[in-house]
Amino acid sequence: MTSQNDKARLFHSLHVKGQPLVLFNAWDAGSARVVAEAGAAAIATGSWSVAGANGFEDGERMPFPLALDNLRRIVGAVAQPVTIDLESGYGETPGEVGATVAAALRAGAVGCNLEDSFPANGRLRDTAAQVERLAAARAAADEAGVAMFINARTDVFFQKPADAHDMAMVEEALQRARAYADAGASGLFVPGVVAEPLIARLAEASPLPVNVMVMPGVPGRARLAESGVARISHGPGPWRGAMQWLAEAARAAMA
Description:
The protein is of the alpha/beta class. It has one domain (4-254): TIM Barrel, CATH 3.20.20.60. The chain is built from 10 helices and 8 strands. An 8-stranded parallel β-sheet has the order 1-8-7-6-5-4-3-2. Helix 5 packs parallel to helix 6 (127-144), helix 7 runs parallel beside helix 8 (196-205) and helix 8 (196-205) packs across helix 9 (221-227). The chain is globular, with a radius of gyration of 17 Å.
C-alpha cells in the first residue's frame, strides 16, 4: 500500500511550473470517485462545495467534525492524493490551526488550503499573524511525519473587483508569498486574479508554485501554462454546475 507520506511527496511533484496540475474540485466521496475515474492525478475539496452539499454556507459554518468525516470518506474512496480546503484553519490561534491540520492529517489528507482572510468578513489578516498560523500548520505536519503540501491562499485579489486589480496588488501578494514560504508554505493560491499579465508576474516572481482558480475572465489552461502557473483549481464551479443540472432536471420532471 502507498503510504500517506508517499502520496504527499507525489502530490508535491505534480506542481510543475508551466505544466499545471488540474484539480476538478469534489465535495463528497461519490463526486471524488467520479473525478478520480475521469483520470485526475489528485483530488481536492472546495469548502464552498462541501458546505453547500451539506446544507451550510461557506465560511467555516460547517462543523469541523462533519468536514473531517467527509474527508475520511473521500480518502477511503480514491487511491489518489487528497487535499482538503481548511478555509482559515478553523481556529482563532496558531495552536488551534495546528490542531486542525493535525486532525486533517490523521484523516488521511496530504495537502490543505489555508487562507489569510477572516471567514466572518473576508478581511485580510496581518501578514505576521498569518505567518504564525502557517508555521503552526507546518509544525503539525512535521510532528506527524508527513510532507504535507500547505497551499497558502492569499485573498488580496478578493479585496477589490477585477477591473481594479493592478501590479501593486501583485506586489502585495508577492510580499505575502515570500513571508509564507519562509513560514513553511508549499504553494501560493491566488483566487480572484483574472488578468493574464498579473498572473504571469505572480508566477514569474513567486518563490512558491502558483495556483489560480477558474472563474469568468481567467485565461484557458494553455495560456495559464504559458504564464507559468503550476496548479489550476476549479473551486465551486463543478458543484454549481451539478446543482444547476439538478435544478433544471427537477423542474422538467415536475412540469
